[in-house]
Amino acid sequence: MSRFRRALKNKQLVIGMIIAIVIVVLGIVGPAVFGDYSKQDLLRGHKPVGTPGDFFGTDALGRSLAARATYGIRISLFVAISVTGLAMVVGTIIGLIAGYVKGLVDGVISLLIDFIWGFPLILVAVLAAASIGSGLLPVILAVGLVNTVAIARVVRGEVLGISEKDFVVAAKAGGYSTMRILTKHVAPNVIPVALVLSSYYVAVAIIAEAALSFVGLGAQAPLPSLGQMVSEGRNYMRLNHWESTIPGVIIFAMVLSVSLIGDGLRDLLDPRLRTALERARAK
Amino acid sequence: MRSLLKTVVLTFLLLLASSLAVFAAIRLSGGDVTAARLPASATAADRQLFRHQMGLDQPILKQYATYLGKLFKGDLGNSLTNSAKISTLAVEKIKNSLILGATSMLLVFGIGIPLGMIAALKRNSWFDTGITSASVAGMAVPNFWLALIAIYFFSTRLGWLPSAGQGGIKYLVLPAFVLSAEGIALTVRMTRSAMLDNLNQDFVRTLRAAGLSERRIYFKHVLRNSLLPIISLAGLRVGQIVGYALVVETIFGWPGVGQSLVNAVLRRDYPVVQFFSLLLVLVVTLGNLAASIGYTLANPKLRK
Amino acid sequence: MGSQHHQDDAVRAASDLVDSYQNGRISRRQFGKGLIGLGIGATAASVIVVACGGSSSKTKATTAAGATENTTAGTPKVGGTLREGYNRDISKLDPITTNWYDPAFSAIYETIVTDDPDGKTVAQFAKSFTVSADGLTYTFEIPEGRVSHSGGVMGAKQIAEVLTTIKEKSFIGGVSTVPMDGYSVDGNNVVLKMKNAWLGALNPHKTGYWGLLNIDTWNKAGGTDPKSTYGTASTDGTGPFTFGEWVPGSHCLVNRWDKYPGSNTPYITNKGKAYLDAIRWNVITEAGQRATQIEGGELDTLIGPSYADLERLKGNKKLTVIQHPEWSGFQLSMNRDYPEYFGDVETRQGLSHAINRQGLVDAILFGNGDATYGPFPKTDRQYEPKVEQFNQFDIAKAKDLLAKAGWTAGSDGVLTRNGKRFEFAAVVEDETVQKLIAEAVTQQFKEVGVVSKFEVVDRAVAFEKESGAGQKAAPMSLFFWLWPVPLDILVIFSSSETIPVPNFSHVKDDKIDAAVAEWRKSGTPDAAQAASSNFQLLWAETLPYIPLMNQYATFVHQNYVKGWQPFVWLLYPVYNDVWMDK
């Protein structure tokens, strides 16, 4: 059975992908379909979903919930994917070096990694906001740091195992350069792990961005971040719960989809890698 | 064991270094303290004098040493927003956070482990499917939104539980459940997969062959082997709960360390930010250390 | 309420005063010294100026039955802890060093005089008080045998001492007591001498900042030292309740003082110690949870529910909602030290016409407020309705005026003039209502091609950013003022003497200065009204600020709570009469 067909049989992966596609499409076409997210109509505030003329509901200032939420998807995805992507690249490189070079370099790196790894992303982001002020930047820095470290940690562990393997030992004996061994022999074996892991960290990043915006330390108005929308809507739960339900459901769906994709990919992986992943996820 | 000792020592060195980093970052970025404490009409000389009196013109390392010195004497300074003594404030906030945090930890394991066990034992039953799906959802739902939903149903609609504040146990129910939701989901998942792994191990077959009762095999051997890694990693849950407490305490108006830290950051109340962030860094570090020690002890292979 | 008789008195007194007022002008230096870092309360406090009375007749209490209830009816029951929800965090309980005073002040402290429900000045701690015919001497008769909570004697000597300390050491005191010469002791009396007659002299004395306390205790705890434990670990007042617990971000508790000898205040019916055992204020900063908690029976009384929940609360048969128009306002400053934006009147008028005030009131306050077109809210007794000819929402007119001012739209729709885009930074405090106003206003400006970029910051930071000199202050800031005694605070907001605080717009306008001076010289009620109208019309036309709206103060209590009656003249209820029928 080809990999692709195996993937199609994996329910989690398929459901996760479907949700992800829907969300990404919403993020891309939403603003074009639902219009300007900042357009307000003070006479049409707090309209629930299904109101004729404001079918997707409005917030306190009569702004379209759909337009704002779909724009919020963009912000979330931008922060989560770009930063986690960067973290994956940097984390993999650090992990490769630490695991392969060993010695003092590894000692220092792994000490730092172990130390930072345990820190909850939200705490790091709050500390970053305390230092550099509120906004998307502290969120990005915190997500970048914590995810880089988390990925480096797992990659390093894998590399430690792989570098003992016969094919690597043989390559070393054959006089290949370290660079070549790393890129040709070691990296291909650890990158899948890093990729799968990254999908989980995208989820963590989405939640962290939303949570920070929720308490007022993340994206600042007038940018319609999803967390901020939930936060603004929470004062009107009785009046029009949609103001927080819509962004809340979207965050939930985004996180769910990347988690499912992660789970699905994991099942396609080598069983040995699964244990490494489960341990990494214990956080 | 020696390596463990090394880990402990190095962790403390790193703790010191990171607390210095947090201290310096907050001091350097804190904006002009004189703006918060002196009238706008204060002259540059007034401001300089104030900085001197407060020791703010010293090198950051020295300021840090002074801060630590005072810290150990219990002098944490005063809040800029309400002049409260931080040491007095902290006692109350720490107490509240401990109550909430400890309850959440209990829920994480007290609910997560049994559910995970049952799911594993009744593998592929409707119960297993339900619990597994719920745990996937539980890990995906943002807890601040879960909090809103919980308040909406249990306080606003049904009126069963208070939505915020403090008092008896009923005030603890909603925040503790929301705070532990993700941990419960994760523990269910880990317990279930560990149980399944162990049930497939050779030793189970051997024990069965030796005529041990299923019950005995499950509870004595499989469960023990499965729980060891989960319990040993309990320290990691501490970090997770600390992180989420920042948000959950804020929503439920739970007057703990998390709520205070978030408010202090928003208000630029630097002495408060400083102390509470150092405190949380310490707690998380200790949690991680406990996890790494626990993990080493639980895996004899790792003991060198 | 607000009887004609009383209003006439106030007008007469006001006119007596205005003549002499000029001598006692508040200097800019004094402002700077005292105000800074205090935020709203301070700014308002600093401007305890010439009085203007007020018609507070809009105060209304509604129950589901629609009847206004006599909340003091019945035989008082003793006991119980009143659980009161409060919409702000609690400040330290020290009148002299606090930035803002919270409801616990009116339980722990008494002031020398206070307002009654009709807005008339009546004795509180004092047994009685008199004013000399020339308005220069106030004599307060101090009751004998009074002690503070700790047992310290509170005689004339001690009262004069604490008043002097407030005048000299409190931020607010430094600016509010300007025309006061000082306090002295005369037998059982405390005598206040004025530099010139000033009807407003007693107004600051009614606020929480003038709460009477045992000055020895205060000094021993640390005085003005930021590390003082007074007000955070203990207090020592003379009010019916004593300090219990104070946990910022959470709650504050006071217990009945069993040695309280009873109130001197005529309208307080309970002449003995308090009925309640204790009062606990719960800080509820989550706006949506306030209503939920009082509906769920977790609270007995509530200050400041979210307006979103008000209709529901009014429909609840177990609850009574009390509302009165607040002496407050939201306004936008336009820093004149950015003349490229706000230097010309057409531009300012253009911006103002772009704002849909009624829309803001309806959408953000759910109708619980009034649009303002001039400096004063409609509640002000000297309100000039003709200001409403200005600043009406009219996009076409706004665009027209901006075009007249030389602004032309660029390719992206943003206005430009002399190569400068109409795009500026602005500051707003991190608070639900104000943030929404800023967002709404930003969008309304955008409609006419103007880009305002509001930064959301904490209150102290906001104050820092709006109170700088020159371009150190942000080009625009949203400011909310609130003050419990009737006064004409906006005079000071636009007087050239008070740049940069609280004249955040840095307005230096001879006409406005002249109008203020004219008003302060007016000798008859008619002249005072004429001068006030003139000032308001000038202000509404030339726009030192863009006025937006005021809001209604809102209080909710369970019907079993009796005697809990907030009224427009005081920010908070008086607690000695409160009891619970349950």
Give the count of helical stretches of chain C. Answer: 18
Strand percentage of chain B? under 5%
Beta-strand content of chain C: 15-25%
Number of strands of chain C: 24
**Structural class of the secondary elements of chain B?**
mainly alpha
Tally the helices of chain B: what do you get?
Answer: 13
Shape of chain B: flat
State mean pLDDT of chain C (0 to 100 scale).
82
Instruction: Identify the CATH homologous superfamily of the largest domain in chain B.
Output: MetI-like
Low-confidence stretches of chain B: none
The tally of structural domains of chain B comes to 2
Radius of gyration of chain B: 24 Å
Helix content range of chain C: 25-40%
Second CATH tier, the architecture of the largest domain in chain B: Orthogonal Bundle
CATH superfamily of the largest domain in chain C: Periplasmic binding protein-like II
Mean pLDDT value of chain B: 81
CATH class of the largest domain in chain B: Mainly Alpha
Query: Given the C-alpha coordinates, what overall shape of chain C results?
Result: globular
**Largest beta sheet of chain B, briefly?**
none
Structural topology:
The complex is a heterotrimer of chains A (283), B (304) and C (582).
Chain A: H1 3-9, H2 11-34, H3 65-101, H4 103-117, H5 121-132, H6 136-162, H7 166-173, H8 178-214, H9 226-233, H10 242-268, H11 271-281
Chain B: H1 2-29, H2 33-37, H3 44-53, H4 60-72, H5 86-121, H6 126-140, H7 143-157, H8 170-199, H9 202-209, H10 214-232, H11 234-251, H12 257-267, H13 270-298
Helix pairs in contact in B: 1-13, 5-6, 5-8, 5-11, 6-8, 7-8, 7-11, 8-10, 8-11, 10-13, 11-12, 11-13, 12-13
Chain C: H1 4-21, H2 28-35, H3 40-45, E1 60-63, E2 81-86, H4 105-108, E3 113-115, E4 121-123, E5 128-131, E6 137-141, H5 156-169, H6 171-176, E7 180-186, E8 189-194, H7 215-221, E9 241-247, E10 251-256, E11 278-283, H8 287-295, E12 301-303, H9 310-314, E13 319-325, E14 328-334, H10 339-342, H11 345-353, H12 357-364, E15 369-371, H13 395-404, E16 408-409, E17 415-417, E18 420-421, E19 423-429, H14 432-447, E20 451-457, H15 459-466, E21 476-482, H16 489-494, H17 510-521, H18 525-542, E22 545-558, E23 561-562, E24 579-580
Parallel strand pairs in C: 2-11, 2-12, 19-20, 19-21
Antiparallel strand pairs in C: 1-13, 3-4, 5-6, 6-8, 7-8, 9-10, 10-11, 12-22, 13-22, 14-21, 14-22, 15-22, 16-17, 17-18, 23-24
Helix pairs in contact in C: 11-13, 17-18
